[in-house]
Amino acid sequence: IATTVIQGTCTPGEDEITVSFPGGSCTAPIRNSDINLTADIDGNGTVDPELTSGDEANNADITPGAFLCVGASKPATLTVSSPSTYRHKVTLTVKTTSGTAPVIRVLDINGEPILAGDGTAVISQGQGSEDITRAYYVEGLSPGTATLTATYEDACCNKKCDTILYTVMSLLTLKATDKANTDNFVEDKTSGTEITPVLTVYEDAEGKATVILNATTDPATDDVLKKVWYKVEGANADPIANPFDPATPTEVTLTPTESNRKYTISAGLDCDNDGKLDNEEITRAVEVLVVKLDTLRMADGVSGGYYVEDRDSLSPPPILRYCNQGTVK
Q1: 150 CB-near residues (< 8 Å, 6+ apart)
Q2: Which of 113, 145, 231, 232 could form a disulfide with 241 if both were Cys (CB 3.0 to 4.6 A apart)?
Q3: Torsion angles phi and psi, residue 225, rounded to 5
Q4: pLDDT score for 37
Q5: CA 175, 181, 184, 188: dihedral to nearest 10 degrees?
Q6: pTM attached to this predicted model
Q7: How do 159-178 and 181-188 pair as beta strands?
Q8: Rounded distance, CA 281 to CA 266, Å?
């Protein structure tokens, strides 16, 4: 029995290769591989999406939704099933699509860099039919978006890939505005400082005050804004915690008591995706002081000895009469 190496033209993605030669042709099977790149996108400890095979695994689709806070990391897994018995090569590629590179980097399970930024690294190259599985961590470096692409190539021109789109996010500012007077507001633009901006507002006739909250993020997208949560510490706040909704103004109604008129409103990104704002996730905060106007006094500016006071919204209100060059006003 004589053996020879069959050489011919193959089409990527096909299951067979047809080789023509003088006097005839033959068909040889190709060992078709599947490549999957998965990540713990939603922070629940499982990989997303589920492993797929065939065309579903190899249609070069992009899986969105992998959100990372700056400085945080999430696991990712590369799986190649049924690699070619002959030559094959597997690579990982990072490419920044918005923001200032590098946006992400890839680390091995020991924390050593595989890709410190944009570029391509060869993960596996050679022969062998054993499935390939590699575990990594993807770390957010700066705000923006970047793709992580796993690519498989074999000796028969097959080239398949799978991509995950990462969004690395940062909370820039938290602004609190008095709804009754929108010119009255404070804004926290820095983190890690001991100075917290204080907003003073007046309670209304019902003993309440409403504050409008605004947050800015990088990237400035609705999907990132939905990851921002706030919580309120103080008496009778409604609501006491919620995520920001890009479609609806974020308002908090405060109903103070005589002994508790001070509120702290904190905000941060829900980096672990657990549906609440943890203390270690807080990066911005403002304080709100709700005051009650008990007495309004108007005095005679000439003599200084005459005045009237309005207490508890008297009706009709008191009138101050004063003398000006001998005339009673």
Answers
A1: 35, 36, 37, 78, 90, 91, 92, 123, 161, 162, 163
A2: 231
A3: -60, -35
A4: 85
A5: -10
A6: 0.76
A7: antiparallel
A8: 10
